[in-house]
Amino acid sequence: MTTTEADQTPLPGNEAAPGRPRHAAEVALEPTDENIWLEDIHGEEQLAWVREQNARTEELLEDAEYSAVEAGILEVLDSTDRIAMVSKRGGFYYNFWKDQEHPKGLWRRTTWESYLTDAPEWDVLLDVDALAAAEGVEWVFHGAGFLRPADGNEYRLAMVSLSPDGGDADRHREFDVESRTFVEGGFDLPTAKGSVSWLDADTLLVSSTADGLPATTSSYARTGVKLRRGEALADAERLFEIPEDHMLAMVAHDSTPGFERTFAVDYIDFYNRSTWVLRDGSWVAIDVPTDVNISAHRDWLLFRPQKDWDVDGTVYPSGSLLGAAFEDYLAGTRSLTVLFAPDEHTSLQSWSWTRDYLLLNLLRDVSSEIRVLNPSVLDSHGAWASTPLDACPPLHDVNAYAVDDEDPGSAGNDFWLVATGFTTPTTLTRGTLSPASSQGEDGGVVSEHSVVKRSPSFFNESDYEVQQHFAVSADGTKVPYFQVASKDLVLDGQNPTQLSGYGGFEISRTPAYSGTIGRAWLERRTLGAPSDDGTAAHSRGGVYVVANIRGGGEYGPSWHRAALQENRHRAYEDFAAVAKDLISRGVTSRRRLGCVGGSNGGLLVGNMLTQYPELFGAVSCGVPLLDMRRYTKLSAGYSWIAEYGDPDVPGQWEFIRTFSPYHLLHDGVEYPETFIWTATSDDRVGPVQARKMAARMQAMGIPNVWFHEALEGGHAGASDNRQAAALQARSNHFLWRSLAGSN
After folding, report:
1. Angle at CA 30, nearest 5°, toward 28 and 36?
2. Any catalytic annotation for residue 708?
3. Active site residue 599
4. Which of 172, 396, 715, 733 is catalytic?
5. Burial class of residue 586 in the structure, from the number of CB atoms within 10 Å of its CB (0-12 exposed, 13-18 middle, 19+ buried)
6. Are 514 and 508 in contact, with CB atoms under 8 Å apart?
7. 155 phi, psi to nearest 5 deg
8. pLDDT digit string (tens) for 214-250?
9. Which contiguous run of DSSP H or E holds residue 380?
10. Is the pLDDT of residue 675 over 50?
11. Which of 743, 635, 620, 618 is nearest to 683 (CA)?
12. Of 208, 347, 599, 639, which residue is the catalytic one?
């Protein structure tokens, strides 16, 4: 594994002015939108257009080679020896499982002793396939939330969340795991976007848009209500309400014994929120700036500021983690302990509490590090004693989280460790944290852990090498990326290369094992052209690349903020810099380079299509945002104004229009081959932006533009393994056909 720095020779014809999106001056507000009719998602004429497009695309893609790719992917997804990840509740370990026989899935549980065996005995609680057949609804399981039992009894009642089509709107139904049935006359909330939380055995805290409860402009719940058993949702007591232009309201109860608390949260937007705790019948605000994220655990309140936070003259940097005693902070004391401070290489990704310790999951140049903090012992600087967890190989993603922080026995300090890498199948380990000495005076912590499960291998991982490289973006910023390729990679520019990215919402792209990529891309073979000296053609597989561009969270909030709103072009410049670096290093060429992205990543590759067409031979664009003029009026788009800006504000549309692919199409440009895919049931982004982009490109006479829309699957584009295999096979097969051909 190597780390190199990019050759920064610009490609001819691609010398954009630093700090300014290309083609910005060419973008103009158009008075009409000829494809607005496609915004009627379920209209008969519109779905007829979709069916016609689907037939055309399926005729192109679904050949014998596609069928083989799809079958290989489905074998990975349906594999019965992959790890069944579990969550502990009481004395049982719960899992949701899909395979060939159960495409919609089984909700099931087992004991720890059985789970440790190669063939655990699973107690099936809910067969979603059988439920769908019995009720005539294509249910998709979205999880379950248990009522905490009284007096140490076993967990029995749960609110099960089911989507009728894979979208974000769920129906919440009360379920008895002992009788394995929905509770007759029990809680049953109509399908809507929202959330539920148990207050007690006869009361739920609900955020919903069903039964006439108001919705925000973003289409989420505007109120939080207290719903008593037997009461209609419309009659429930309203506890909490937010302004219509805020994103969503949520009420939830923390039932930790001895620390029972009810919270309300006003999610103003993705990065700003206000939180209250209920005291003596009144809401008490937790006094922090709206851009400081907070979480509570027993005695502690943790803070993660999105921007630098000045507290009584002390400035805490964005991306740090701070701790305070919960009750002291509510009483006005502002004594904060620094638990983590970022640097230019290291960021905090997540944290998890065991009963007595805090686990921090960090990234250092996009490789994992884990630290264990002991709040009961302070070091010489007054910080919680900290111990590294030595279980993180380089260029891997490793995450630690608690097994059950409320277990009264030794399991209260147990943790799961999930490790994965591009060529390392996932491993599940269980460990136990304990003081480093019998008295634990120094606060050090030791970890005893052992492997519980290993994921099977789906391709010949030993044939491939993972490297990390750094490209230099237009403003001089170093941008890391991972390259996965054969160990005998020939740097002749002829390797079919799939470049993937996201770059938004502070989401990090980390190393991850994928049997799908291994089979459908890395191991797929084509013959290269004979060399100039007449030697035989080189048999080559694909190269897979993941770019860690700005807008993501790989280096914390500042890395994300660097590509917000008017600075959005930085994300696209970063991605283009990685593409140029791959070409200049001889890994690939424009003819052999393709890019793929979904959702915000679909917007990313849509901008590669329109702003950097000279860099790519093919683009696979999934469930995308593309029409940034109208995105706030489509599905949940209004909720993303904090990320992209508001196109209805003239000053903001001036910069938004510079990254709106629907408005950046021009006649006379040689565009890459394009595949745009979406889902009718996607109620987050929605299918209409994808429809409109494909329709406009085809009307302009742009060749090789393909479109496919799945009817089910929601924003994921698939609700079961077969649909997921078909989706992934179409994207990979399209890119391979476009990039690995002889032309």
Report:
1. 140
2. no
3. yes
4. 715
5. middle
6. no
7. -60, 135
8. 999 999 999 999 999 999 999 999 999 999 999 999 9
9. none
10. yes
11. 635
12. 599
